[in-house]
Structure formats: C-alpha cells, structure tokens
Give the backbone structure.
Amino acid sequence: MPESPSCRCFRMAIDLLAKPWTGQILWILQEGPLRFNELATKVQGIGEKVLSARLKELECQGLLVRRVLPTTPVRVEYELTCKGEGFRQVVEAVTQWGTQIAEAEAQVQAQAQAQIQAR
C-alpha cells in the first residue's frame, strides 16, 4: 500500500529531527545569526567536523543560510530561513502536548495515591 502524502511528510520531519544535534542547532539559531565558533560554544559536546556537516545538511535542506561576510578576516555566519523558523511552532506544539501528557500523568498518580490512602 502506498504511503499517504501526510505520512510521508510526517516521516520526513521526524527523520530530520531525529538526527543528532538538529534540534539543538535549530533551537540556538532562533536567537539570531551566529558565527560558527559561537555555535560550537553553544552546542555543547559537538565536534567541529560534526557541526560543520550538520550545518551543511541543514543548509541543503533550506532550513538555514550560510552567509559569508565581507570582512578581513572573512567571517561566516548562519541564520535560520523562514522554513527553519517553522521549528519554533514544532517546539511549541510538542511542548503543549508534553504538558498535557504530564498533567494527565499527574492526575492518574493523584488518583492512585487517593485510592491507596482510602484503603
């Protein structure tokens, strides 16, 4: 059975976010444009080769833009595109869903405690 367009799009988004460091890089770039070394400092634990590879991949996917600044020495900075800015909505939606799950879990726990105390 062929995959529906919505399933394919969902899978593409999950595959992207499942890659190591993607979420953290996109999250940090929401602050605004950053140079490579600034990103390397803020994305703790990532090696320069891995960061470079992830940035190239995110650039190819149209989520960020690499801008070479005409300075001496040459500086390069990275900034989210409009497509990359959409990540904020994903974080907000997942956070809201997580909050609902946590509240429901707390309610279940409270009910369980009440039943134990009632015995």
About this structure: Helices lie at 5-18, 22-29, 36-42, 48-60, 82-85, 87-118.
